[in-house]
Amino acid sequence: MYTDIMLQKIDELTRKVNILLEWIKHISNSQSEWVDKEETLRILRCSERTLQTLRDKGILIPSKPFGGSKFFYLRKDVMSLFEKNFPGKI
Q: Does 90 reside within a domain?
């Protein structure tokens, strides 16, 4: 037989597992929202040096996964910068 304490612990564990599953689902869906350096260069039609300047000036903020060596950019930020510089070209 389950005691009230055991049932509470099971409920708490179930709640935490569900939160974790939602977080994993969110992370996996948001992966497509990120683009790597090569894709960013292609979209913006710029050189690596120009991309570096955009990072240095804080115009385009990169994300770097913990322990990784590759920069990623939010697709919406890249597209916004493109539209600002090349209006009507999308």
A: no
